[in-house]
Design goal:
single chain; alpha+beta; 12 strands; 5 helices; 2 domains; Alpha-Beta Plaits; two-stranded antiparallel sheet; ten-stranded mixed β-sheet
């Protein structure tokens, strides 16, 4: 049986890298008594995979883990058991049974959306001196009215010119308690993967303002896959176990 788990990663846990998160969940499955399946061979391991692992320093409300189980209790019971062994900064949000034909989350991710905002300690040092109305005017010229947004992306072996206009689905500038918040929904996955900081740097370059990547907190809201020609949250796949 295939199971898709959605979880949050926040607070101090944002500094824990993906490999340690993998090992952490392996231990949590045993502690919570999840009847997880193991691979065969001389070195059996738990069958699990993550969708678009999060970078160090980022927080998220929409991380996903697929596992295979031999048997399962009800979704609510499993969520409660897993949360009972979670550390502060990690929270299980859902536990859903997938159809046997469903591909793993890693292979179906098409896009992700983010909120990006200045960290508290950088609020004064990195103030753009632009109010939200001015930023929205700049955004209209940079994104809304542009036919293409060409940037050069550095890869491991070479440089690649990308058109961000074709890879960014939404870009909005909002205000929350006086703080500027950039909402960005962009292509994510094995084919076309765009990081929010790459897009924001292009926007700041357009405004002739220096962009300090370390000054911004990136918070992933959710991950999406394509079904029936529309983007849906990975949390909408599968069904609750009663």
């Amino acid at each position: 049986m295939k199971i898709r788990i959605r979880f949050r990663k926040f607070s101090i846990m944002k500094y824990i890298g993906h490999l340690d998160i993998l090992r952490y969940f392996q231990k949590c499955m045993r502690r919570a008594g999840i009847d997880i399946s193991y691979s065969g061979g001389f070195s059996p391991h738990q069958i699990m995979s993550f969708a678009a692992p999060l970078g160090v320093g980022l927080t998220s409300d929409g991380e996903y883990l697929d596992i295979a189980v031999e048997s399962s209790e009800a979704s609510k019971v499993s969520v409660d058991k897993l949360n009972a062994v979670m550390v502060p900064g990690m929270e299980i949000l859902s536990y859903r049974k997938l159809d046997d034909s469903e591909k793993n989350a890693m292979s179906v991710v098409a896009c992700a959306d983010y909120n990006v905002f200045l960290k508290d300690e950088y609020e004064k040092k990195c103030n753009t001196a632009l109010d939200i109305d001015s930023l929205r005017e700049k955004k209209k010229a940079f994104y809304d009215d542009a036919k293409e947004i060409l940037v050069t992306k550095q890869t491991k072996k070479s440089e690649k010119v990308m058109d961000l206009k074709a890879l960014v689905y939404e870009f909005e500038i909002n205000e929350n308690d006086g703080r500027i918040v950039y909402y960005i929904k962009l292509s994510t996955g094995s084919v076309d993967n765009v990081k929010p900081e790459l897009f924001l740097k292009a926007f700041y370059d357009f405004m002739n303002i220096e962009f300090d990547e370390n000054a911004y907190q990136i918070h992933r809201l959710d991950l999406y896959c394509m079904k029936d020609d529309r983007l849906i949250s990975l949390s909408e796949t599968g069904e609750e176990i009663e």
